[in-house]
Amino acid sequence: MIHFIGWGSDELMGNAYNPRMEVFNNRFVRGAIISSDGQVLARTVVSDTRKNSDGSGNPEGAYTETREYPLGEVAAQAVGYSTKGKTGIEALSNFYLMESNSNPVVQVVNEITETKSQGDSVVTTLDAGLQKIAYEALGEHNGAVIAVNPKTGEVLAMASKPSFNPNTIVEDWESIVNAENSDAPLLNRCTQGLYAPGSTFKIVMALEYMREHPNDYRNFTFNCDGEYRDAENSDYVVHCYSGEVHGAEDLHTAFAYSCNSAFAKIGTMINKTKFAETAEQLLFNQELPIDISSSKSRFNVTEDSGVWTMMQTAIGQGETMMSPLHEVILASAIANKGVLAEPKLLKQVQSSDGKVIKVFGESATRQLMTEEEASVLSSFMRSVVTDGTASKLRDADYAAAGKTGSAEVSKNGETITNAWFTGFAPYDDPEIAVCVVVEEGETGGRTAVPVAKQVFDYWINER
Q1: Which CATH class is domain 198-346+362-462?
Q2: Is 428 left (phi over 0), alpha (psi -120 to 50) or beta?
Q3: 20 to 30 A from 218, CA-CA: which of 158, 196, 202, 209?
C-alpha cells in the first residue's frame, strides 16, 4: 500500500482497466496532449446539440466526443490512440488527461447542469517541428528516427514508418491488424522494432577491446586486404563492404572506415565473459528505461560461443538485435561523458485554464561508461564523419559525430540491407543525439546519414 500511495498511484489510477477511470470519463472531457513547441498533438472535440440556443431542450440533439490528432500519421505511434485500447503517450498520461484541475466553481456548475468539465492537458517533450522533419526525412522508406537531448533525456522526436491515421483508427482497424499486413503500422519501430545493428555495434566492440586493453588499445594494428579469414577454419571468412581494402589500420582508423575485417579479428580476441558483462552494463537483454512499450535488445554470447559467432557478432550480424531506442541511448551516454539521462516523454501537466499542476522531475541518470571511455569513443565517432563512412555530414556548419551501419538480413527469402546511423551534434557541446534506421536502404552512409543530417540541420540551425 505504501508503494501505491507514494510511487505507483498515478500509474495504477491511470490504468485503463481501473474502474474508477470510467467515473472520470463520465465527469471530464479528456484533456489535450501538447508538444513542447506548443502544438496540439491530441485533443477532444465536443459536439452537444441537446439544447437549443435559448436553453430549451432539443430531443433530436446528441452529445459526441471526437478525439482528434492534428499531426495524423506523423506522430501516430508516439502519441498513440485512446480507442481500441490506449497506447503511447495516450496511455502514459491517461491519469492526468482524465483529471480536471480547472476552476472548482465552474466544476460545481458543470455538475449541476450535467456538463463535463475539461480535463487537464499534458505537455510532452516532443518537438512538433522536429517530429515532422524526422517523419518526412524517411521519404518512401519504412524505418525509424528517434532524437533525444543527451543532457536531459528529453525525447525530441520519435517517428516510425509505415504509420497509420489515428483519426480514423476505428474505421481502419480491421485492415490495420489484418494478418496479411506484414508492415505492422501499429508497431513503434523506435522503441519496439528490433534490428541487426550492423556496424553500429562496433561502438560496443571498440569499448570492449579498450576495456580489455586499457594501456595499449592504441597499439592495435591490422592490415586489411578486404577480408578476414580464421586461421584454423578457412571457411570462416568476413569481407569488408564491396571487398574494399583499407590497408594498415589502428583501432581508430578501423572504426572510422568501419572495417569488418579488423573487427572480425577483434571478435576472436576478446574475453567472452567480460564481453557479456559489458553488454549487460550497456542494457542488453534488459528492459530499457522508458515509460512506453519497448523491446529488449538481444545479445547472446557465452563461453560456448564459437569463432564464427564471435566474428559475426563483432560486425553486428548474427543473433544480436537492437532497437533504435537502445542505439540512441548509447549515443546519448557517449555524448554526455558516459552518463545516461534516461529518456523521458512528459514535461508538465496544465489545467484547462493554463495553470501548471505538475512538473515532471529531471531524468534519472546512470553511468554506462567512464568519462575517459566516452571521450575516446566520441573521438572515434567524430572521425567517422571527418575521415570515414559518414562523409555526407562533413559539409555541415556544425561538427557531428556518429557511426554508420549496413546490416544484411533476409526478408521473404531475399537479402536486403537495413541502413543505420547513430550519433550526436554539435561535437563539443551536444544538444541532440539521433538514431536512424532505414529499412531496405543502401548503406548507412548513403541512406541513413542524409536523414540524420536533416534532423541535425533543423534542430541546430532552423528551429
Answers
A1: alpha beta
A2: alpha
A3: 196
